[in-house]
Design a protein that fits this description.
Layout: H1 2-17, E1 32-37, E2 43-47, H2 59-72, E3 81-83, H3 86-89, E4 103-105, H4 106-116, H5 119-130, H6 133-147, H7 169-182, E5 194-197, E6 200-203, H8 208-211, E7 215-223, E8 227-236, E9 239-248, H9 251-268, E10 269-275, E11 280-285, E12 293-297, E13 302-307, E14 314-320, E15 333-341, E16 344-353, H10 362-375
Length: 376
Amino acid sequence: MKRLNMKFFWLGLALLFTATTWAAPPNVSSRAWVVIDQASGRELAASQADLPLAPASLTQLMTAYVLLGDIRKNKLSLGEMVTVPAAATQMDGSRVFLKAGDQVSVDTLLQAMLVESASDATIALVTAADGSEAAFVARMNREAKRLGMSKTRFMNATGLNEPGHESSARDLALLGRALARDFPERLPFFSQKELPYKGITYYNGNRLLWRDSTVTGLKVGRTPQAGYCMAASAQRGDQRRIAVVLDARSDAQRTQDALKLLNYGFENFDSVPLYRARQAVKVINIYRGERPSVSMGFEQDFHLLVPRGSAARVKAEVITRQPIVAPINRGQRLGTLRLTLDGKSLGDYPLVALEDVGVAGLFGRGWDSIRLLFAK
């Protein structure tokens, strides 16, 4: 259903271009980039978004995703003290200068990873979780596959350069959306501006956290091979967007490019929550069922993306396939939600049964057989 929805969405968007004045996507200099609506995951603009590139320490967004899952499952706790392994102290890249044998809380190590991109803190965390970085990276790749990150392959948990270690702007936007969706209570980790630790204050490299009060995260990274990278999220009112830029030439460029993309997403689109997951869009009568009706709707939250300010002009029509006869299985397509804006099609979206309905008894089936004669 999701794939079909996207097909119709882009068809509707293309039709709207013929009747609506749209601002062109901004001039972005980074090598690959994308901006998406966080609520629906729909793409607003992109360039080379599927190009596999070194992601630098944006890798640690997936490291954090796996670790936050472990915390939710009580495999780790924020207050748990971790013994720093010798391997962590030998890492290249950004560090908070941990010493072998130090006892540091999971909470502090997570902050060090997400504020400073600290490789030593990252290795301490993944070793505590799985015993080795290799075992943890295997889980990172499984999660990437589950989330649909088709251009991603992780070789390490830190983002340091390694042959074959790559991701794409679209995959990283997908990951950023998954973090916001699956761990909303942990998002403050990604907007933390600074971390005092052992007499040194480390500052988050995401300059947008200081420049724009609506920015809520997520992460920056840089290596000589990856260039300057950023995944930025922001919320303005009830609208949320995620922008990813990869392989910018400088810190200033990645910051400006990400801000341009966020501004474009907010200034030109509205994401409208039409229906919640499993909310009945319509209740329809059925024949030969153990009950007389069934609810149909969407299995996932349904957000419609429209030109900014036009949501009130969207019209909806429910079209059902008649007659509908039991048995009915949850998820079975029963109808269509047809959406238009100013008379132009926004697409047809499949409506599915929200529950199972078994077959009625002998008497019920017989009576409905008679009713069906007249229904036809």
